């Protein structure tokens, strides 16, 4: 498992590398603090998991995520933050951020998040992304067709468009069209936010 840590705090990188290597024996983790090194590393390992320092400031962080998305869209991101209430965090979901972990969390929380991201699953804090109240969410989900709800359920389980098309025996193009309609209906920007809404409603 290839993991790239991009963080300003070298002490944090060092401690996290030791802890994660004990918890995930198969992990290959590289610690970086210069953006030039990050792009070189991703050139070599474009499908690596990126653990990104979310405390660099919203503009810097989003700039890195945007360039990452343009050049290495398959790279999944785990964002490390000190404060999960930052308003701009909601915007980073569009950049293939699948996990957000607070910097002072125990190493096993990071291990769980990394393993989740590796499987294409989300590992996000509880309520800080919610933009609708629970009743509104339930009403919006009820307005979806039965086929759209099937697709959303599979999406929330981490299935790709291709996997969904195989499971439901429909074309990938049909899946994409349904997803675009789902995003508009639920007023979300991407599959991660749609899955979050489905999971939050299902758990309540």
Automatic annotation (TrEMBL):
The keyword DNA-binding is annotated on this UniProt entry: yes
Organism in which the protein naturally occurs: Superficieibacter electus
Transmembrane segments: none
Keyword terms: DNA-binding
GO MF terms held by the record: DNA binding
Pfam family name, one: GerE
Name listed for the protein in its UniProt record: Helix-turn-helix transcriptional regulator
CDD domains assigned: LuxR_C_like
Record's keyword annotation contains Flavoprotein: no
PROSITE patterns: HTH_LUXR_1, HTH_LUXR_2
Every HTH luxR-type domain range: 137-202
């Amino acid at each position: 498992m290839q993991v790239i840590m991009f963080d300003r705090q070298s002490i944090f990188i060092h401690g996290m590398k030791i802890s994660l290597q004990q918890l995930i024996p198969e992990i290959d983790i590289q610690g970086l603090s210069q953006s030039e090194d990050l792009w070189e590393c991703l050139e070599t390992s474009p499908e690596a998991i990126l653990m990104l320092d979310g405390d660099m400031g919203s503009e810097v962080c989003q700039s890195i995520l945007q360039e990452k998305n343009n050049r290495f869209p398959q790279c999944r991101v785990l964002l490390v933050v000190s404060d999960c209430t930052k308003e701009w965090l909601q915007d980073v979901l569009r950049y293939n951020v699948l996990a957000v972990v607070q910097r002072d969390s125990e190493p096993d929380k990071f291990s769980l998040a990394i393993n989740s991201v590796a499987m294409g699953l989300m590992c996000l804090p509880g309520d800080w992304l919610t933009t609708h109240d629970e009743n509104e969410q339930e009403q919006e989900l009820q307005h979806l067709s039965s086929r759209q709800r099937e697709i959303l359920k599979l999406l929330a389980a981490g299935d790709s468009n291709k996997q969904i098309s195989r499971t439901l025996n429909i074309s990938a193009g049909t899946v994409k069209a349904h997803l675009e309609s789902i995003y508009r209906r639920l007023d979300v920007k991407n599959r991660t936010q749609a899955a979050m809404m489905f999971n939050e409603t299902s758990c309540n």
